[in-house]
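Changelog note: in this version the structure field was regenerated for every chain. One regenerated record is shown below for reference.
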Amino acid sequence: MSAPPPDWLEAGLPHIWLPYTQMKTSMPPVAIERTYGSRMVLADGRELVDGIASWWTACHGYNHSHIQNAIQQQLKVMPHIMFGGAVHEPALRLARRLCASLPSDLERVFFSDSGSVAVEVALKMATQYWLNRGVRTRTKFLGFSGGYHGDTIAAMSVCDPNEGMHSLYSGLLPQNHIVDLPTNEERIKAFELVLSRHADELAGIIVEPLVQGAGGMLFHDAAVLTMLRAAADKYDLLLIFDEIFTGFGRTGSMFAYEQSGIEPDIIVLSKALTGGTMGLAATIARKRVFNAFWSEDAKAALMHGPSYMANALACAAANASLDLFEREPRLGQVERIEKTLELSLAPCRNLRGVTDVRVRGAIGVVELEGIGDLNALKRRFVDAGVWVRPFGRIIYLTPAFTIDETDLAKLTGAIVSILSSE
């Protein structure tokens, strides 16, 4: 028998507004008391295995002692200080370490507090790069169908315009060019046609390398990135890689772009950057991008500055997270998860209503013809003891890299079992 709802839930629920939720018709949110490993402990005492690592952030699992200790030590010294005209050791150490893990020419880090804002910064960087060089016509971007880059205004403008979360705001958004990824001959021709017609008004190209996350967990080959790099070079465009989802091991390499052998001009990182503990993001630019802002003219500076930019606690968490990637076998764990997902989700291919099963790194996707009652499906997963959040036409898993075999088997088993009974 479940425990009665806690007082804080009944008292507070009427005053919160949940994300991506029609609160009149959606199932009530689950109340979480605490976490550990890959587990979420509910207020009624039940435990759920988290299959999505808190929107892909908790790559090391929950409550890792090394990250906890780093945050606690930093809290004793300095929780935060403005980054305007002042710097601190955790941020500078983190910037140096991030640059060291990327190509040598990606050397300037601009910190912010969320992935969406970091994308806004990248778009501002790219636009002002041209303005500072005296080119006033290059103010638009080329993005891709199925792409998702965040919920703020400029970030929404480079997302798929037909994607349900943002279509309502079409009249508000800047107009950019959105095409299909050049994955076949027809799409390559369409891509090249847009570039030939509009290159003079484009500041850059933005893409999620290898996997388009919130747009539907859509995969593409590294050859696509090579093609984008060649096109950017041909038309003198900046190439922006949004690795908010794919960065830090999720696709099997530390960063997804490494599997292509090419490099971006700007890369955007967040999500797993702090190991799932607090908000932090980084927009990292190549030397030539930064040099366009290096000037005697004060107006040439990048005019952006979040109040909690380079928050010291978040930087301490991120440094600790990088420690774990260096000390513990995270990429080996991702390889293990990939093999397990491929084997365990394979039976779904033979189920009615399933149109595709795909796996890359620690990402497993079962795509359906459609999902009728989304609330009912979510409830069934909770009743099965797992936290899985289907959206659109997909059921997906993005577990913590540290998940054990038993918990991973519970996740995949729940998906196979529930879909088999549909």
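Spot check on this record: The mean pLDDT is 96. The radius of gyration is 22 Å.
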